[in-house]
Every structure is written in C-alpha cells, then in structure tokens.
C-alpha cells in the first residue's frame, strides 16, 4: 500500500482542545555518537532527547519520525561539536514549518571513557567513566549551549580528622608523656604502631557541574572541564594502583580535608573563569551517617537544564 493512502492523524486529525505546546518530541533515543574533540575514535552510547515547539493550537501533533530520521542521519555522518548540533537544530525546525515550529532543543547524555595514569607508578593506568550531558537550544534563532559533567572524588572530614588527631595526641601523652627525653626513633616507633588509634572518616563524593557556553564556541571543552574540576578537588578517585599510589592518594586526602561546603567553594572558584552562568551540586556519600551531605551553588541566571536525576 502506498504510504499516501494511509491515514495521517497528526496532519489531518481534529484537535478537540486547541492549545499551543512548549515542547513535543522524543526522550531516551539511543544512538552511537562520535565526539569531535576526543580523538580516540570510539563512538559513545548516547541517550538523546529531541523536541520542537508546537505553537499552532490547531495542529494535532508533530511528525516524530522526521526527528528520528534527522538524528539517525546525524549519528551516521556527523560528530558532536557545537556547529554540527546547531545545524541539526535548524533542520529540526525546518522539518516542522508546517506546524509553525520556530524552536528546537536536544539533550545528549553519555559516559565518556578516558584513561587516567596512576599517581606515581610509571606506565600504570586505568579507565575512568565520566557522565556528560550536552543541552542545546535554538529559540527563535538564538543558540544556547550548556555543558554538564560529573566527577567522583574522595573527601575526608576535617572534624573527624581533628578528633582523630586529638585521640592520638592523648594516647601519646598517656604512654610517653611522663618521660623527660625521647629519641626521634622512639617517637617514630610509637607513631608507627599507634597513629591509627583513630582514623578520620572519608567517603566517595560526587560533583556535578553545569555551565553555559558561549554561543560561538567551537568546542564543548569536555575533558578540559573535567581536568579543571579534578585539579581543583585534588582527590579524584583512582583506577589501577600499587602501594606507592595508594600512599600518595592517602597523602592527598590528608592535605585536602573537605567539608561539602569546602568542595563546593573550590569548584565555584575554579569554574568562575569559564562562565558567568554555572551550577554546582556536591554530594558527600557519608560513611558516618546514613544520609548524604549536600551543597549547591549557582552563578548568573538559572540554567535551562540541570536535572541529573
């Protein structure tokens, strides 16, 4: 049967309750996409939301197959960069001129795999997975670009560290405090055995950062942003480690004691040089409590997409 003979309810159906709609489309479309700024050559498994507006109150529905075919063609021949996504949004708008459409948006989420070296061991490395979200809007011809990334790091509680030091100090005084003289070797021997009388609690922690990019950006800058966040926090989780690397990681944790507020402020300062519009969400998955510690910061106007749930 010729497709023209099949009923087209979206085009010819009668709208029982007329009304304009802000966004209509598809969510959770799965496709392989290539990142232009990452040269590893492997596509990422992406989940895509693609939507257009429906301002004509008397149009029953959009043509979702048109959007899907545009996404499929994009995945086949294009790579992810601001310019190519701008073109995609224009094509989405053009594909629905018969619906009065003048705006489109796409959200793309995926995990970026990147190889990270060990802290000290030469030629030792492992893979890290970073959740990434790209949100792109074309609103009446105006382009908006937003990048979001998530990083895992370790956080050691400053209060717990202070309490642990106090117990160790008290233990030292109870054992050796009555002696008038002590050799460095005796002190070192005591510490080697007793410096873990108490240990501060630390936990895996999550930082989610979203920022608005310039509309004329040529790249998203995904990996540079991830590097900036990890350098700011100083304690990103590690993959392949030997004992020297684990010791170096323990040293980093000791030198970077952080409440959730400290971590959020570090990130706030780090991203201030990149964008006037940024949102930071930090969670410390407490090992002392059954609940999480949380902090949030936002600069500039509210971002148009920041929900990582």
Automatic annotation (TrEMBL):
Keywords, sorted A to Z: Hydrolase
Pathway in which this enzyme or protein is active: Cofactor biosynthesis; 7,8-dihydroneopterin triphosphate biosynthesis; 7,8-dihydroneopterin triphosphate from GTP: step 1/1
Gene3D superfamilies noted in UniProt: Urate Oxidase (3.10.270.10)
Uppermost EC category: hydrolase
Catalyzed chemical reaction(s): GTP + H2O = 7,8-dihydroneopterin 3'-triphosphate + formate + H(+)
Tree of life domain: Bacteria
Transmembrane segments: none
Record-listed E.C. numbers: 3.5.4.16
Coiled coil regions, renumbered to chain: none
Marked site positions, May be catalytically important: 157
Pfam families documented for this protein: GCHY-1
Family to which the UniProt record says this protein belongs: Belongs to the GTP cyclohydrolase IV family.
Functional summary from the UniProt entry: Converts GTP to 7,8-dihydroneopterin triphosphate.
PANTHER family listed in its UniProt record: GTP CYCLOHYDROLASE MPTA
UniProt name for this protein: GTP cyclohydrolase FolE2
Species, as recorded: Undibacterium hunanense
């Amino acid at each position: 049967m010729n497709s023209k003979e099949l009923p087209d309810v979206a085009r010819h159906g009668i709208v029982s309750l007329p009304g304009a709609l802000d966004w209509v489309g598809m969510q959770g479309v799965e496709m392989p996409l290539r990142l232009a700024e990452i040269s590893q050559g492997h596509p990422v498994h992406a989940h895509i939301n693609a939507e257009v507006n429906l301002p004509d109150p008397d149009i029953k529905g959009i043509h979702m197959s048109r959007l899907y075919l545009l996404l499929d063609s994009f995945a086949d021949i294009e790579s992810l960069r601001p310019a190519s996504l701008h073109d995609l949004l224009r094509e989405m708008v053009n594909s629905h001129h018969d619906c009065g459409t003048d705006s489109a948006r796409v959200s793309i989420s995926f995990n970026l795999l990147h190889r990270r070296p060990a802290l000290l061991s030469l030629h030792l490395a492992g893979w890290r997975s970073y959740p990434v979200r790209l949100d792109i809007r074309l609103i009446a011809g105006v382009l908006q670009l937003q990048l979001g990334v998530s990083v895992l790091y370790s956080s050691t509680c400053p209060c717990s560290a202070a309490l642990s030091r106090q117990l160790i100090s008290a233990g030292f005084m109870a054992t050796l405090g009555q002696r008038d003289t002590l050799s460095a070797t005796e002190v070192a021997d005591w510490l080697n055995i007793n410096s873990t009388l108490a240990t501060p609690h630390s936990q895996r922690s999550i930082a989610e950062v979203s920022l608005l990019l310039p509309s004329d950006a040529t790249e998203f800058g995904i990996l540079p942003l991830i590097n900036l966040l990890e350098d700011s926090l100083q304690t990103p989780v590690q993959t392949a480690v030997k004992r020297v690397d684990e010791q170096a990681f323990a040293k980093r944790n000791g030198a970077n004691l952080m409440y959730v507020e400290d971590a959020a402020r570090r990130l706030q300062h780090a991203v201030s040089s990149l964008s006037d519009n940024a949102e930071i969400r930090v969670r410390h998955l407490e090992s002392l409590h059954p609940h999480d510690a949380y902090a949030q910061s936002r600069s500039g106007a509210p971002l148009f997409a920041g929900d990582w749930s």
